[in-house]
Amino acid sequence: MAITKINGGVTAPKGFLASGLNAGIKNQTKKDMAMVFSSTPCAAAGVFTTNLVKAAPVKWDKELVTTSPYVQAVVVNSGIANACTGAEGLGYCADTAAEAAAALNIPKTAVLVASTGVIGKQLPIDKIKSGVTALSKVLGSSREDAKLAAEAIMTTDTKSKEVACTLELDGKQVTVAGMCKGSGMIHPNMCTMLCFVTTDVAISHELLQKALSEDVVDTFNMISVDGDTSTNDTVLVMANGQAENTPITKEGEDYKTFCEALHFIMLELSKKIAGDGEGCTCLFEATVIGAKDKNQARTIAKSVVCSSLTKAAVFGHDANWGRILCAMGYSGAQFDPEVVDIWLESKAGTIKIVENGIATDYSEETATKILSEEEVIAKMDIKEGNETATAFGCDLTYEYVKINGDYRS
């Protein structure tokens, strides 16, 4: 099965329209509302924040993904999170959905909503409603329309994040695409991120949810920027079946093929978020090999990528391997530190800096060159089995503090 990456966003699959615009939520210049719409009903799946404090849109979407027979649209605003806003905030979700339903001639229960931004503020619902109406009139299927939507959901992101791919399934060409936002308040078990995946694959709600729930474990749940888990984290998948493949209603080769394509999209988007961490200069990956099971590998990899001292060392291009080994040690996973090997890798090359728990006679100059690239990998072999896992993060810079010190300004 060959997956082909294409230049596209959420409008790449058949039947999907999108757009983004300025509704005056942030200011009068930045785009701050987006809409994605399918011309036909979609099966929907979602995964959400594990934070006990859940934003109103999370509550709204969890209910719809579970109970609604289908969905057709998602309305997103940036600038205000609609979190910690009580009954009024939840009511605004219903108001937004009702406005979109009227504009698009679909049921209110077919409209998902999402928000990102400052916690604690109430949405300017009149601006939201006006934005919904305006968006419904400019929806399009072009590449530019997808870009507008991706740009409108950004907060502190420095770049919009999109990816799309095509593949053959059941003799049909199908497309899977997605957009996401996220830059700070990023931590395993989701983050202050929103992700929207569209596909023209025909698949049951049950299997779509299973595919998403299982895939997020090794994608969005393996990224970290700063250790903060947000109130609004949401990943939604909409599948409208317009590729006209035989509907996937049971596990088998077609389901496996779809899962591989979904994983490609989710992994690409996860890495885009990790590589755009607030103030960061590089994507930092931690890969554990030789683990006895997946849980051990994931636990250790997450610990390394979350270590503030390790992240600071990566920023300083300092091969301070003791910080990596230390982070492995406090991860909670059991392993023998006296057999661990550690490598640093990037486009500049590969260097082994630790063998059997002690330093090799490596070149500090070479290590610094490797750590100076835009993508850096620390690979750790714990020599206990054949399982592997990778966590994704970034370096920790002065700019991170500056950005978050005046976030509301």
From TrEMBL:
Active-site residues, as the UniProt record annotates them: T192 (nucleophile)
Record-linked SUPFAM superfamilies: DmpA/ArgJ-like
GO molecular function terms listed in the Swiss-Prot or TrEMBL record: L-glutamate N-acetyltransferase activity; L-glutamate N-acetyltransferase activity, acting on acetyl-L-ornithine as donor
The keyword Amino-acid biosynthesis appears for this protein: yes
Pathway: Amino-acid biosynthesis; L-arginine biosynthesis; N(2)-acetyl-L-ornithine from L-glutamate: step 1/4; Amino-acid biosynthesis; L-arginine biosynthesis; L-ornithine and N-acetyl-L-glutamate from L-glutamate and N(2)-acetyl-L-ornithine (cyclic): step 1/1
Superkingdom of origin: Bacteria
Biological process (GO), any one: ornithine biosynthetic process
GO cellular component: cytoplasm
SUBUNIT field: Heterotetramer of two alpha and two beta chains.
PANTHER family: ARGININE BIOSYNTHESIS BIFUNCTIONAL PROTEIN ARGJ, ARGININE BIOSYNTHESIS BIFUNCTIONAL PROTEIN ARGJ, MITOCHONDRIAL
Family: Belongs to the ArgJ family.
Protein name: Arginine biosynthesis bifunctional protein ArgJ
Lineage start: Bacteria, Bacillati, Bacillota, Clostridia, Lachnospirales
